[in-house]
Automatic annotation (TrEMBL):
It is a multi-pass membrane protein. PANTHER family: TRANSMEMBRANE PROTEIN 33. Belongs to the PER33/POM33 family. It is found in: Membrane. Pfam families: TMEM33_Pom33. It comes from Oreocharis arfaki (tit berrypecker). The keyword Membrane applies. Coiled coil: none annotated. The chain crosses the membrane at residues 32-52, 99-125, 169-193. This is TMM33 protein. Keywords: Membrane, Transmembrane, Transmembrane helix. One of its GO terms (biological process) is endoplasmic reticulum tubular network organization. GO terms for cellular component: endoplasmic reticulum; membrane.
Length: 251
């Protein structure tokens, strides 16, 4: 899941090696800084230590920082921009393009805590991976406490990615609820549905597709129990059939 860096650790002193590594990988370093800023702003939104009014501004800052990171990553993946349908189709295959769209969907909307978790956790995972590279460039045994925290985070990466996928899925009904409660726009559910189909078809991250399958298996197991009322069973089967028809075809 982490961004790949072509240049390895640079020789030098404890601090000099890290500085040389950062300077040799300027684009990756810029994304690292923007991800750390995203984590910082997201945390201050989830934990409004500076007040609720400031929390709303941190929500927007986190999404704007994530949009910047996604744009930089997309430029890294597709450096030669072309105003063509083929380039757009290729860009839509990239996860960074998905989360650029995601940030634009929610940046001007009513703050929703669910919507910030994917941004926070993806930024945390990617920032942790690059931080380990910086530490390796500094020294092979530098800051063992921080290394231990980063290792624990990496060990739980699969669970974190599944949690992100759950957020992506359940934000779809949340956008519909926001529309009827007057906190969302008419276009938001339709644009978010497009985002969700892109995540479902993602080549790099299959967790959204996997979670849909797992949720379907769990629901079918529960409604097939004799204790389940018939009308609930029919309602759930109709819902499963409807969602299955909406799912895009994956190559």
């Amino acid at each position: 899941m982490a961004d790949s860096t072509q240049n390895g650790p640079m020789p030098g002193g404890a601090g000099g090696g890290a500085v040389q590594f950062l300077m040799a990988n300027k684009l990756d370093t810029a994304m690292w800084i923007s991800r750390l800023f995203t984590v910082y702003c997201s945390a201050l939104f989830v934990l409004p230590l500076l007040g609720l009014h400031e929390a709303a501004s941190f929500y927007q800052r986190a999404l704007l920082a994530n949009a910047l990171t996604s744009a930089l990553r997309l430029h890294q993946r597709l450096p030669h921009f072309q105003l063509s349908r083929a380039f757009l189709a290729q860009a839509l295959l990239e996860d960074s393009c998905h989360y650029l769209l995601y940030s634009l969907i929610f940046v001007n909307s009513y703050p929703v805590t669910m919507s910030i978790f994917p941004v926070l956790l993806f930024s945390l995972l990617h920032a942790a991976t690059y931080t380990k590279k910086v530490l390796d460039a500094r020294s092979s045994n530098s800051l063992p406490f921080l290394r231990n925290l980063l290792e624990k985070l990496s060990a739980n990466q699969q669970n974190i990615l599944k949690f992100i996928a759950c957020n992506e899925i359940f934000l779809m009904p949340a956008t519909v609820f926001m529309l009827f409660s007057g906190q969302g726009s008419l276009l938001q559910p339709f644009i978010y549905y497009r985002f969700l189909t892109l995540r479902y078809s993602s080549r790099r991250n299959p967790y959204c597709r996997t979670l849909f399958t797992e949720l379907r298996i769990v629901v079918e197991h529960l409604i097939m129990k004799p204790s389940c009322p018939v009308f609930i069973r029919r309602l759930c089967l109709s819902g499963i059939s409807f969602i299955s028809r909406l799912a895009p075809t994956v190559a």
